[in-house]
Prior knowledge:
The structure holds two protein chains of two kinds. By secondary structure, chain A is α/β, with parallel strands linked by helices. Chain A has two domains: 5-199 and 225-237, 3-Layer(aba) Sandwich (Rossmann fold), CATH 3.40.50.970; 242-351, Rossmann fold (3-Layer(aba) Sandwich), CATH 3.40.50.920. Chain A is built from 13 helices and 14 strands. In chain A, the strands form three sheets. Chain A has a seven-stranded mixed β-sheet with strand order 3-2-4-5-7-6-12, sandwiched between helices. A five-stranded mixed β-sheet of chain A has the order 9-11-10-13-14, with helices on both faces. Chain A has a two-stranded antiparallel sheet with strand order 1-8. In chain A, helix 1 packs parallel to helix 2 and helix 3 (57-69) packs parallel to helix 5 (87-95). The longest helix of chain A has 21 residues, at 217-237. The radius of gyration of chain A is 21 Å and the shape is globular. Chain B has six helices and six strands; from the N terminus they run βαβββαββαααα. Chain B is globular. The two termini of chain B are 26 Å apart. Chain A binds chain B through residues 1, 4, 6, 32, 114-116, 171-172, 175-179, 261-265, 267-268, 337, 339-342, and chain B through 20, 23-24, 27-28, 30, 32-37, 39-41, 59-66.
Amino acid sequence: MSDKVLMKGAEALAEGAIQAGCRYYFGYPITPQNETPEYMSRRLPEVGGRFVQAESEVASINMVYGAACAGVRVMTSSSSPGISLMQEGISYISGSNVPCVVMNAMRGGPGLGNIAPAQADYFQAVKGGGNGDYKRIVFAPSSIQEGVDLFVDAFELADKYRMVVMVIVDGLIGQMMEPVEFKTRIDVSTLKTPEWATVGRHGRDHANIITSLTLDAAGLEQWNLKLQAKYAQVELTESRIEEYQMDDADYAIIAYGTMARIAKTTIRIARAKGIKLGLLRPITVWPFPAKQIQTYVGKLKGTLTVELAYRQLFEDVQLALCGKIPLGWYGRGGGVVPGPQEILAAFEEQFGKGR
Amino acid sequence: MEHNVVIAGFGGQGVMLIGELLARAGMEEGKEVTWLPSYGPEQRGGTANCAVVVADEPIASPLLTEPQAAIVFNRQSFDKFEPAIEKGGLLVIDSTLIDRKASRADLDVVYIPATDIATELGNSKFTNMVLLGAYLGKVNPISIASVHGALSVFLTGKKAALIEVNKKALQAGVDFVNKK
């Protein structure tokens, strides 16, 4: 056998982050991702890292901010209501042009909601959340292995672009077990402290100062333009998608994360019935893989967007395809997860028998 | 080829454990596996279940709305999962603890007095292994030898002494369905 181990998602993702070079974790407990900080508290000291359970989510994200300013690989994780509390800090980190990784194990909302799987934080992750014009790269893995692999990219891209990278999963991915292999190990001794890091002057002729405050309007506009240029570059080069059984597809389901995985079973059932259905699965939801999806204009008779939310992903699909392909939608909320047959029924209701 | 099963009972009956054994044994055979627990505001004495998929191909949905089989340890789980099983599927029931008969005629139902068999082997705690044996006697997602291998991962140190009796309980379940 290979080096596969059977691990719970929330723990495997934590190990994935450590293999990716994460040495600092600050967090506050919340279900359904408590196994992540628990694992970090045990493992980080073993690899020379530091784990701190903060007094709140607000404190956690500001500790992350501080460590990010020191130029180290740092992350936090939480679940929906906790991520809401972190939005101010995420905006500050973005405005300060420093890197970090934030994982959200999304649960049913709004409010305290429940602890069941959901994707209703899509807008918060992709469109905004905190104040001001900022963007994060948002990865949406649909298996534990993919999540582990993406953590390497998450830390690499966070450092490369000096920005916040979010990894959004849900309780289903967090709680399930799958075989996983850790293929890449970043040797942290090879990571150089960035020259902008606030770790002392070391003979430089100036002190590094990191802030998100710029009182002069013209100066802040220039700063914003710099950020916008960076986001434009990311949008151009970093969007990713999986195209599954699309070669001969008449129709496509568009879904990400857990929902995409369940949709693959729907596709198997549909194809057995003679419906040529494929899947377009955004792996990054920001940047949204609009260009890749647009290549199917003229080839598809329709798409069905499926999500554990109410028309959030659907809005990005509309922006990419509106008026060019008939667009269907199906979603469940509050932590209810539809099965493969239920998705097929929604497809047949909206597109007939798909012929 | 894909095999999937829901295993359900009270918390503490070893429901999650035999699911994990199945998944681990499948992984050791080089198969694709997923193990998905029910999770929520669970409480002591409440019901728990897990969904296990063992397949040759990458697994799409780990969530089973129409499982091929169910192994039920108590009446509540029986009532909940009997209607969900796919047409012609398999239902394994601990008939020591469940007095009701299945109401569906299309299912292959195994009524096995698993708690009684386990008690005869020395401890009712082995009931889960007897039920897993009965399931594996009916379908072969993995070999019994792989389950034996997986047992040695779970039962280490002082608990290693329990491996043999667990193997016996597993075999008792296999034998029960095979002699029929």
